[in-house]
Specification:
Residues 2-109 form the MTTase N-terminal domain. The protein is an alpha/beta fold. It folds into three domains: 3-102, 3-Layer(aba) Sandwich (Rossmann fold); 119-353, tm_1862 like domain (pyruvate-formate lyase- activating enzyme), CATH 3.80.30.20; 359-434, OB fold (Dihydrolipoamide Acetyltransferase, E2P), CATH 2.40.50.140. The chain is 36% helix and 21% strand. A hairpin with a 5-residue loop joins β14 and β15.
Length: 450
């Protein structure tokens, strides 16, 4: 998929969730459509505050299912009364909001089009460093749109990064179908040098490396880990989608790595960095996946314990080789997805729980819901600071926070004030820490397709 349309109804919490979905899709290279009829997927974020609202949601879902290629329904009504959409014969996938990006992305490479240019979104600069990939995965439709890798020069990408910093970027997100193969088309693996050069740009900013397939980075993983260790500007974060813990399934997927290569990448970063975040993806229910293959994936997840995990149920994409394979039943895929998602929450929750009581240097990246902001520590872990305005915290700030709690997939933190002992308002601000991150503003409809 390459284009999306989102409609959001309800409170500020729903609007915040839609912003998260859009950010993830944009990071994956997807772009907004002009309207639902032009979109590859339409996403309906629902409200269920009163019966009239429910009827409106069902009616809008029916309309969207008739005019768009694929419909995803999320939000309050999807979770509380999801069966009503099936009873109304609405052809839609019902998902929790944080499952939507991985479902839409479907385990595929991000789609960076030939005309992709750097984008400044608040203080976040998105820098596409190349287009296309070197893979030929049997389930991926993206390759039809992007072709083989095409890498602009290091100098060209560094100048684009410098322009983003001068325009106010505090975080540069290096993106591509597969950042690990940057430069392969020119006969050289240039990613470590490119990252080193970007980190040398004058200014105070952080750099996040986007998705790099294990097969692409394996040949440079030792050099890459050294670059991470040498540059504090780089978030100690790697997104390396393994997709399966079974070599048999990886072969059928036509992935360019096997499990041992993935382990070697992880072990190298473990050796070089005191703490780092591993992000990875699993596709559950690939047509040739047996119960034993699924168990191997579960075992691998439990072994390497990534701090960010995307779990996607396999779905066929027209024109791909995997679409011609005899698929598994929907019940099997749902059961396996449920089991892996439960293990995911256990692993991720454990990681964030371990942060409680510790102090971290963070960058405030964007506004959250209510009067909160979202921050990232050096390992790109998300820390929420509440009552930001009262604390004088703004997007783009660098500050020190102490983690006071967590909510499975992110942490809560309080700024550490160096002059707290002499600040007469400090106690009052501390008393506000228990306030809710979000305040229900009542039903409201917002439509976003841009």
């Amino acid at each position: 998929m390459a284009t999306y349309h989102i409609e959001t109804y309800g409170c500020s919490s729903n609007r915040g969730e839609s912003r998260e979905i859009e950010r993830a899709l944009r990071d994956g290279g997807h772009r907004p459509a002009d309207g639902p009829e032009d979109a590859d997927v339409a996403i309906l974020n629902t409200c269920t505050v009163v019966e009239k609202t429910e009827r409106n949601m069902l009616r809008r879902a029916e309309e969207l299912s008739d005019i768009t290629a694929e419909l995803v329904v999320t939000g309050c009504m999807a979770l509380a009364q999801g069966e009503q959409f099936a009873e109304a014969d609405v052809d839609a996938e019902i998902l929790h909001w944080d499952e939507v990006p991985s479902y839409v992305l479907n385990g595929e490479c991000p789609t960076v089009t030939p005309d992709a240019e750097p984008v400044l979104d608040g203080v976040v600069g998105i820098l596409p460093i190349a287009r296309g990939c070197m893979s030929n995965c049997s389930y991926c439709i993206t390759k039809f749109a992007t072709g083989r890798v095409d890498s602009p020069s290091i100098e060209e990408n560094v100048e684009k990064a410098r322009a983003l910093v001068h325009a106010g970027a505090k975080e540069i997100r290096v993106t591509g179908q597969d950042t690990g193969v940057y430069g392969w088309d020119n006969g050289d693996r240039k990613l470590p040098e490119l990252l080193d050069r970007i980190c040398d740009i004058d200014g105070e900013f952080r750099v996040r490396l986007g998705m790099a397939n294990p097969g692409g980075i394996h040949g440079i993983h030792e050099e890459l880990a050294e670059v991470f260790a040498a540059n504090e500007e780089l978030y100690d974060f790697i997104h390396a989608p393994v997709q399966s813990g079974s070599d048999d399934v990886l072969e059928d997927m036509r992935r360019q790595h096997r499990v041992e290569k993935f382990r070697e990448v992880v072990e190298t970063f473990d050796d070089r960095l005191d703490h780092w975040t591993l992000s990875t993806d699993f596709i559950v229910g690939f047509p040739t996946e047996t119960e034993a293959d699924h168990d191997r994936s579960m075992d691998l997840l439990a072994e390497v314990r990534p701090e960010k995990i995307n779990v996607t149920r396999f779905s066929k994409r027209p024109g791909t080789d995997a679409a011609d394979m005899k698929g598994l039943g929907g019940t099997i895929k749902k059961e396996r997805s449920k089991a892996m998602s439960e293990l995911k929450m256990e692993v991720v929750g454990e990681a964030y729980e371990s942060m409680v009581g510790e102090t971290f240097e963070v960058l405030v990246v964007e506004e959250g819901t209510g009067d909160s902001v979202k921050c990232r520590d050096s390992a790109y872990r998300q820390i929420i600071v509440q009552n930001a305005a009262d604390r004088g915290v703004e997007v783009g700030d660098f500050l020190t926070v102490e983690v006071t709690g967590h909510n499975t997939v992110y942490a809560f933190g309080d700024p550490v004030a160096t002059d707290e002992a002499t600040d007469p308002d400090a106690a009052e601000r501390d008393a506000l820490d228990g306030d809710s991150v979000d305040r229900d503003e009542g039903p409201e409809s917002t439509v976003s397709s841009a």
